[in-house]
Design goal:
2 domains; alpha/beta; Rossmann fold; single chain; Dehydroquinate synthase-like, alpha domain; 350 residues; 15 helices; two-stranded antiparallel ribbon; globular; 15% strand; 51% helix; 6-stranded parallel beta sheet
């Protein structure tokens, strides 16, 4: 199996101003540039300066408003043949859009996230709409990831809390993967487990968990990149996604007003870790408190009835994907916990 990992990686303040320099160094001088919705006005001038100073030619430019696969096909086949690489600046929608184009055309993509709500900006998958339904598809892992931590710090805090929720879930995801090996002999890639576990533990062991701190933000960004690499190494989402992600996906389908993916994942991780009797359950609780995640969610609770329905539906999300929720008695146990645990009651509301 061929494994690709990002070659270009810059995580630092004001990295956006040096994007042209980074591209020139990699000999990408003819670029297709894609913005997320509403971002062209914010960053167009900065990008023009950095591209002009490094003599980077924009041969294609677009703003992404959708992640429907039909639009991706149209865009991919309208790109000039002279494009050497594509640059995606924004959130998950535009980055997933471009990762799939890069996969189709087999050209490099440079991911420039403006928020860190999950690990998708560095992963080999894309969440797209196919025939009106959301699907997780194989895509191209970015050749480069450039993150300006000043931009991340200025993004709404709930995006960073979402990234923290997505990162802490590696504990429960790895637990589910190992359980799948014990019950169904599903192979486990030990190196992918090591990468994923180290990623979350780097965050856990960092002392100053202030999301306004540039060093902490740099650390979270790097950890999320490593989570993406773990998925590339394993050839699946297993090291980064387990029963907690199934609950979040089900909640997206059920709730009238879903929250951010990583917020839902973080809440589900806390609950699932209890069900798993995961040795990191208290660690998960502590980190979610220290970062301010719990305080944020307690003021922006998930809907209790929708969360319970999501638990019930979660095992149906992925066919032949064993997790702790594959055992029917565990669904009842988790629902009882969600309904009665006083602390968890802070995170969901009627």
């Amino acid at each position: 199996m061929e494994i690709s990992i990002p070659t270009l990686l810059r995580i630092k303040p004001n990295a956006l101003y040096k994007l042209g320099k980074y591209l020139r160094k990699e000999q990408f001088v003819r670029i297709g540039l894609f913005y997320g919705s509403g971002l062209k006005e914010m960053f167009e001038e900065q990008l023009k300066i950095t591209f002009d100073s490094s003599e980077i030619e924009l041969v294609y430019e677009d703003v992404v408003e959708t992640n429907a696969i039909e639009e991706i096909y149209k865009t991919a086949y309208s790109l000039p043949e002279t494009v050497q690489a594509i640059v995606a600046i924004g959130g998950g929608k535009v980055i997933d859009y471009c990762k799939y184009i890069a996969f189709m055309l087999q050209i490099p993509i440079i991911s420039v996230p403006t928020s860190i709500s999950n690990d998708g900006f560095a992963s080999p998958g894309a969440s797209l709409f196919v025939n009106g339904k959301r699907k997780s598809l194989k895509a191209k892992i970015p050749f480069g990831v450039v993150i300006d931590t000043e931009i991340i710090r200025k993004s709404p805090s709930y995006y960073t809390y979402s990234g923290i929720g997505d990162l802490i879930s590696k504990y429960t995801a790895v637990y589910d993967w190992k359980a799948a090996y014990r019950v169904r002999q599903e192979p486990v890639n030990d190196f992918a487990v090591l990468i994923s576990t180290n990623a979350v533990e780097n965050m856990v062991n960092y002392k100053n968990k202030d999301i306004e701190d540039l060093e902490f933000l740099r650390l979270i960004c790097g950890c999320l990149v490593m989570s993406g690499v773990a998925m590339e190494v394993s050839g699946s989402s297993r090291p980064a996604s387990g029963s907690e992600h199934l609950i979040s996906h089900a909640y997206d389908m059920i709730a009238q007003k879903p929250s951010l993916h990583g917020i839902q994942v973080g809440v589900a991780t806390y609950a699932v870790s209890w069900l798993q009797k995961n040795p990191e359950h208290q660690t998960i609780k502590r980190v979610l408190e220290e970062t301010g995640f719990i305080d944020y969610v307690s003021k922006n609770c998930l809907k209790k009835s929708d969360f319970i329905d999501a638990i019930k539906f979660a095992p149906n999300i992925k066919h032949n994907f064993y997790t702790v929720l594959s055992e029917r008695e565990n669904i009842k146990k988790l629902i009882d916990y969600v309904e009665t645990d006083e602390y968890f009651g802070k995170l969901i509301a009627e």
